[in-house]
Design brief:
Structural class: alpha+beta
Number of domains: 2
CATH superfamily of the largest domain: Glutaredoxin
Largest sheet: 5 strands, mixed
CATH class of the largest domain: Alpha Beta
Number of helices: 7
Strand content: 15-25%
Order of helices and strands: HEEEEEHEEHEHHHEEH
Distance between the termini: 50 Å
Length: 246
């Protein structure tokens, strides 16, 4: 009798992942029927109210096990006050910093360059210009600027001129902070098409998009107070990752 009980318990435990996987597949199938225009990237069960997390295009939605509704918005843990959705989005949209194609970026170093960021920017982006002006006051930083001209044909022409200039870093800063018109010959080979393809693959849909050393990214310009805070967090996160890899 005891043996049967043990066997039944083991069978039940082994069946749980299968059941969970079945539920996930059913949800995917139902969503495909209901909203075929929205390709589902992943589905997983959350520990909150029987909800399932659904990721579509880097965005997070919630549904039930029958996919009978979709919840749009943030999930908040009232005990910890943590925005579960925001934290998960940061995790989902992380980009491995060391895997970025730095040879296709303009490298700008200030001070000892010990803190690092990458930014995807358009030369005609007003928010990018504001952020670049603020960024001039940040010390001990290495900035990798990925030219990402997605706003207009003129953005492409300016980006080509900047990349082909004698000093791309100076040309970029002058364009963004002094409103000068870049004067490069535009005839040299540029990485613009590759940058745009890379950005599309990583779901970078707007400028500026900032990527920190820990892979965390922020779409849009942020205040310098928040930026410094993120830099500190990213540095600490990067150090922890290096220790764990040893």
């Amino acid at each position: 009798m005891r043996l049967r009980s043990i066997i039944a318990t083991v069978a039940m435990l082994l069946a749980l992942p299968v059941a969970a996987q079945d539920a996930v597949e059913k949800i995917k199938a139902e969503l495909k029927k209901s909203v075929p225009e929205a390709p589902v990237e992943s589905v997983r069960k959350t520990p909150y109210g029987g909800l399932y997390e659904v990721i579509v295009g880097g965005e997070i939605f919630y549904t039930d096990e029958k996919a009978s509704f979709i919840v749009v918005g943030s999930l908040i843990n009232l005990q910890t006050k943590e925005n579960i959705t925001e934290a998960r989005l940061r995790q989902v949209n992380r980009v491995a910093f060391n895997d970025l194609p730095f040879d296709r970026a303009i490298k700008i170093v200030r001070g000892d360059g010990s803190r690092k960021i990458a930014i995807f920017e358009d030369p005609n982006c007003g928010y990018c210009k504001r952020f670049e002006r603020d960024l001039q006051g940040v010390s001990d930083i290495t900035v990798y600027v990925f030219l990402y001209p997605i706003l207009s044909p003129d953005s492409v022409e300016k980006a080509k001129a900047i990349w082909c200039s004698k000093d791309p870093g100076k040309s970029w800063i002058d364009t963004m902070t002094k409103e000068t018109v870049p004067t490069g010959d535009k005839s040299c080979p540029t990485p613009l098409d590759q940058n745009i393809a890379f950005g599309h693959d990583k779901r970078i849909t707007g400028t500026p998009t900032i990527i920190f050393e820990d892979g965390d990214r922020v779409p849009g310009a942020i205040s310098m107070a928040d930026f410094e805070k993120r830099l500190k967090e990213a540095k600490a996160g990067g150090s922890k990752q290096k220790v764990s890899q040893r």
